[in-house]
Amino acid sequence: MGRWGKKGNPVNGWVCLDKPVGVTSTQMVGKVRYAFNAQKAGHAGTLDPLASGILAIALGEATKTIPYAVDTQKTYRFTIRWGEQTSTDDAEGHMIASSDVRPEKAAIEAALPEFTGEISQLPPRFSAIKLAGARAYDLARNGEEFELSPRPVQVHSLRLLEVLDPENAVFELICGKGTYVRALARDLGLRLGSVAHARDIRRLQVGPFNESNAISLDSLEQLVHNPTLSEYLLPVETPLDDIPAMAITGSDATRLKRGQTILARTGQVEPSDVLFCARIHGKAVALGFIEAGEFRAVRIFNIPTGVIKSDVDYT
User: Given 48, 187, 252, 311, which residue is catalytic?
Assistant: First the structure.
């Protein structure tokens, strides 16, 4: 049993995993949790089994910051194959429609502005969206009838990188949460008078998590229960860099952890809807709002404020 009376150890921090093709995000969370012998784990956004790339996995107290990681900007590189529409909108499904139309480069580039900014997108039927407690992909696999509703998503940038051949073109997408690469490929194909699906999807970045601070699955499995793994454990605060910081004292931290308010230390009057991160020496203690000159915490991090990077115990 761990020191908190739970199975595993109180490991707190983020792991930036470079997920390979052919495994699920849930499986990767399990492998990271096992490798660190951690009590608790979760991820900041599902990556499809046929997609590779950055999967940000939170351990321990870092799971409290998952919503802020999910809200960050994401970057993808992917290929669109023209002329074939599949049941899953990627290479995993079976072909459900075909077209002889192969869009020219100029036509592709001319259509891209229509898919940038805030757009309405119908999610793929094979997606993790829940309907009455069931995942859409489970309903689709069981042949059940159901309807998904379009939803607004934010596309910051969509660029054509390369035309490989008449059937395949490579793109880069920078987007907000909830954007489906597969749906974008499907819709762009229809807009260009053809049909299409996405292939070779790779996520390059999730906010502060990218290829430069990632560990591969092979490296992770070689270092299972090895203290060297701590080098790949990023701070709990990693997704909070865009949230204004407020420096506090040790006595302030004690009061916050007791559920009390503290005097706001921003040096200026702030709107009551601005979220702040109270920190000691850069270490997050709480998230909260300032009201009438006082800071009121809405989330407390139960980790030693003296720990700079992580709290790892492999014993």
Answer: 48
Predicted structure pTM score: 0.88
pLDDT in tens, 23-78: 999 999 999 999 999 999 999 988 999 999 999 999 999 999 999 999 999 999 99
| Domains 74-206 and 243-300 fall in the same CATH topology | no
Which amino acid, one-letter code, is at 164? L
Q: Determine the topology of domain 13-72+208-238 in CATH.
A: Pseudouridine synthase (3.30.2350)
- Class level of CATH domain 74-206: alpha beta
Q: 48 an active-site residue?
A: yes
Nearest to 52 by CA among 172, 178, 203: 203
User: CA-CA distance, 305 to 155, in Å (whole number)?
Assistant: 38
pLDDT (tens digit, 9 = 90+) per residue, 121-134?
999 887 778 877 88
